[in-house]
Amino acid sequence: MPNEKVLLCASLILLSQRALSSTMMHTKCRGKFYPRGNNKVIRFSVPDEKVRWAVPFPEYAPVSFTTAGILAGPSFADPDISETLFKPKWNELDGNVDRRSHEGTYEVVDGYPRNKHGRTGVMGRGCLGRWGPNHAADPVVTRWKIENESRVINPVSKKPVLQFVCIQRKDSGEWAIPGGMVDPGEKVSSTLRREFEEEALDALQMTAEERQIVGQKLKDLFEQGKEIYAGYIDDPRNTDNAWMESVACNFHDEDLKGILHKLELKAGDDAKSVKWMDLDKELELYASHKDIVHQVTLQHGAHW
Ligand code: BGC
After folding, report:
1. 245 CB under 6 A from ligand 1?
2. What pTM did the predictor assign?
3. Residue 66: inside a domain
4. Among 65, 101, 170, 225, which is least packed, fewest CB within 10 Å?
């Protein structure tokens, strides 16, 4: 295929991903209990047909919840909206804090940003630090599964099997992409690499010299990332006024003897385990991560 066609294809996939994200019906943030509330914070039940704000729901009375940890005002969190000195610039880059959504303008109702994907049964910030979008970045690091020096082909789909670096989260125990929050003022490309090194290689425990060696090895791989997704994430921590968004990029090593077949994985920071996981539709992953890794398999023509 000539290059322009490849580019056109890639942009179409990206456009359809963005469209998909803005119409996504969230479900994981409508479970019975809000996480980290000791199963005491019960979400107001929102049936599918009443999720959209445009649909009248006069009896809607969501519980208001923000964890004590967030109310204590850690450095990564916003103050309460009632604080008179707090003058956030919604939908804008507010100093170092990015209050823009990947999905366009969000509404601010009675001073509170409103989740574009609809009702969640909880008001306030829950355990999220920012009002409005809370930005994360997710590196999907992939290689081909090999046996006897060749790619493994799935007998049913007849397609080669892709593997990605997958971590088990300490907070929920679920398997996930080794992503993390974008620090204020941080470039997404730096977050992607930092989170991968911290969670999948335990870089926080390395000496400066070891870190430099690993960094050098990963340099080429991380220079050729491909954006897979940018938008809302159906995260169990979302509320009506605070939600997760992420930019996911794929870093793929095509070389069957390349760096990703030699790298030693070691869980660190927010991860309790790490492993190469085969990509397959039976996978269960945290939040919307399954949709993201599915896109990666489509782009590589891999088994799903
Ligand atoms: C995780 C990311 C995830 C985001 C939204 C962050 O805590 O580290 O991997 O995409 O939350 O769910």
Report:
1. no
2. 0.89
3. no
4. 170
